[in-house]
Amino acid sequence: MNMTSKIGVVIPSYKVCKHILGVIDKIGPEVSRIYVVDDCCPDGSGEFVKSNCRDTRVTVLQNPENLGVGGAVMTGYRAAIQDGMDVIVKVDGDGQMDPSLIPDFVAPILAGEADYTKGNRFFDLEEIHAMPKVRLFGNAALSFMTKLSSGYWDLFDPTNGYTAIHAEVARRLPFNKISRRYFFETDMLFRLNTLRAVVVDIPMDAKYGDETSNLKISKIIGEFFVKHLCNFGKRVFYNYYLRDMSLASIELPVGLLMLLTGTIFGLVHWASSVQSGIPAPSGTVMLAALPVILGTQFIFAFIGYDISSVPKRPLHLKNRLSKPIS
Fold first, then answer.
1. pTM listed for this prediction
2. φ, ψ for residue 8 (rounded to 5)?
3. Burial, 198: exposed, middle or buried (Cβ in 10 Å; 0-12, 13-18, 19+)?
4. What is the pLDDT of residues 200-222, one digit of tens each?
5. What dotted CATH number matches 7-240?
6. DSSP secondary structure of 233-257
7. What are the CA-CA distances from residue 13 to residues 4, 66, 238 (Å)?
8. What are residue 118's DSSP bridge partners?
9. Residue among 119, 141, 115 at smallest CA distance from 196
10. Helices 184-194 + 68-82 axis angle, to 10
């Protein structure tokens, strides 16, 4: 690791007084600054850290109102960028994330291999048994939706909040438009894809102690599904019509149109056949099946192109950074 690089750590703080001092104590000397963001915590976690922490690297930031984890992280990002940090790591204050892994998250960025790194608790199959089964299933469902909406098909564990980002990439993010609540981590991936940033998963173990999680996957999958659809639509428009045009730009709408047309045509004639009791002619069946088959093939062709288009060249290594579209 390049020891001349300045590493900042952002710790959103909301009802974590029991664990946050332990998290700070475990942060190694490779970190230059630590930003504890009190997100209008009812327990006064910011004042608690000020009164009980003697680490001179720590700066406590206060949000005047509760902005959610996304808003708290953006507050920390702004401060870290202003202080000239090169890489900004986000670690939760509840003790679930091991601060000793910070060098692992930072290394690919400093090596020019990534713009953004995030944790993946599913990498080691021997360790994921520690994850509750409902959360395991929920994360699998959310991961698939995130792949579709963000365009990062090689990533998993989208709700993992252990992340690191190059400051030059962070400054290009539309801070005021990124989701502030539980959708923050997945919305970040969508925003990063519109910048064509390279994102890499970092293996880490699942860890669950006596902390209380406010995220109930069973309650947010429906909300996330709608938001993922919106982000998918925006990403496709940005990448395949506004910024560039390719064969995939034709394959998706043609495929969707053929699939929809064939399905509607087939359902109408099926209902008519059931009502009249007369089987539909084989020609009618073929007229319904053919556009469905061809439409499905066009959609799979688009997905194949989309998978092959995952960003490969780190954004922060480019000489010029274009303004993000959001």
1. 0.85
2. -110, 145
3. buried
4. 999 988 665 554 555 555 566 67
5. 3.90.550.10
6. HHHHHIIIIIS---HHHHHHHHHHH
7. 28, 11, 35
8. 163, 201
9. 115
10. 50
